[in-house]
Amino acid sequence: MTAFHRHARPAPRRSWLLALPVGYLLVPVPLLALQISGHSAWVPDFSGLSCILVALACVAHAPSAWSRRTAGPGVWSLTLALLAADAGAYRIFSIADYLHDPHLITVSLAELLVLLVAVLLVAPDAARVQTATPAPPPYPQLMAP
Fold first, then answer.
1. Through-space distance between the first and last CA atoms of the chain, rounded to whole angstroms
2. Taking 80 as the threshold, does the pLDDT of residue 117 lie above it?
3. Could you say which of 5, 66, 77, 83 would form a disulfide bridge with 126 (CB–CB 3.0 to 4.6 Å)?
């Protein structure tokens, strides 16, 4: 999303539109099914759901991140690592809401652990992208009169 320089490839048209129905199929439909079936205690809060979904995305992306056949830039790995950092920070800050319930604190820490293990699967590819990307040229300094 930050590739706005003149040498950046143009974004593919309309493929992002698939994210909306996929997002609805992955999040609200299973949550609604759990609530209707009477298993509402299994429904995680928003930060827990974020951790779980990012961890699933990391696990789904891990085979292509480790494969040498798809040795293209690991932008997805870097994106997932940054998204995992955001979801993990949100989970850490939301633990304060559960100080009265040790079970929910344990569940929150387990979600963080699962997220950490999942992001470790794509972290080498994300680090490789960071070292392979050259620094942008510095902007010219304007001289003060």
1. 37
2. yes
3. 77
> DSSP string covering 4-60, please?
-STTSPPPPSSGGGGHHHHHHHHTHHHHHHHHHTT-GGG---HHHHHHHHHHHHHHH
Task: Give the H/E segment covering residue 145.
Answer: none
Cβ atoms of 62 and 123 within 8 Å: the answer is no
- The vertex-137 CA angle with 133 and 143, nearest 5°, equals 160
Residue 126 has pLDDT above 90, yes or no: no
Distance CA 72, CA 118 (A): 21
- 27-67 pLDDT, tens per residue? 788 778 878 888 777 778 888 888 998 999 999 988 888 87
Among 55, 61, 41, residue whose Cα is nearest residue 101: 41
* Rounded Cα gap, residues 34 and 58, in angstroms: 24
Task: Yes or no: say if 51 and 86 are a contact pair by the CB < 8 Å rule.
Answer: no
What is the rounded distance in angstroms from the CA atom of residue 48 to the CA atom of residue 94? 9
For residue 59 the two structure tokens come to: 């696990």
